[in-house]
Amino acid sequence: MGCCQCQGIENMFDKKAAKRQLKRYLKKGPSKTTGMLLDAIHKKGVQGLNFLDIGGGIGAIQYDLIKAGASNGTSIEASSAYIDVVKEETLQNGLAERVNFKQGDFTTTATDVDSADIVTLDKVICCYDDMSELVGLSSKLARKIYAVIYPRDVWWTKLALPMMNFYPRLKGSSFRVFIHPTKKVEKIIFGNGLKRNYYATTLFWQVAIFTR
Asked: Count of domains in the chain?
């Protein structure tokens, strides 16, 4: 991820956005696609497994996996504001000792990150201009399950892309959304020894689970 994109993430995903998203999660639970991802992971079994949640956001996946029986996990998040908000929430719900938080760009710290039974990227691939590095490094770390949500590679999502990037430009942020070809994403994942065994879509998103 380029330095401009990192700075853009800091600007777009600030403390106000983090608190708003956490409030929504506490009231309504995970989003539809996150729920789909978690349901698919649950069917594989999570008891006693550990996880690595890249771009962990407000912690929806982390809370769910621990409650479902995962032993512990690591959250790597580029936004310092989101890390601060999630740390505060985990202290309140008693999960602080079960999740290790790291702030920064995963691709620059990947060599210092341990492999995990479950690796998740919920709407993270679309935040990276260098998809190959992100997917290549993260999928190598998945011992059992690699779970991702990213935009569908279809004409209507591509048509919507300029509109999605209009708001960051209007706000003066360097953050941009990217739509990467599904075949290229999956080629990298398959090349790291994983096979796809769950796939579902919504109008905009694709949800996929890969296992070894």
From this structure: 1
Give which of 128, 90, 86 is closest to 110, Cα–Cα. Answer: 128
Dump pLDDT digits (tens) for 152-198: 999 999 999 999 999 888 888 889 999 999 999 999 999 999 999 99
Output the domain CATH number for residue 151. 3.40.50.150
* Rounded Cα–Cα distance for residues 145 and 147 (Å): 6
In which domain, by residue range, is 43 found? 3-211
Give pLDDT tens digits for 199-208: 999 999 999 9
Spatial contact of 47 and 58, defined as CB atoms under 8 Å apart: no
Please state, in angstroms and as integers, the Cα–Cα distance from residue 126 to each residue in 29, 114, 121, 175, following that order. Answer: 22, 23, 10, 11
Angle of helix 80-93 relative to helix 60-67, nearest 10 degrees?
A: 30
CA gap 47, 79 in Å, rounded = 29
113 in helix, strand or coil?
A: coil
Strand pairing category for 99-103 and 142-151: unpaired
- pLDDT tens digit sequence for 67-125: 999 999 999 999 999 999 988 888 777 778 899 999 999 999 999 999 999 999 999 99
Q: Amino acid letter at 187?
A: K
Contact assessment for residue 128 and residue 1, using Cβ atoms and an 8 Å cutoff: yes
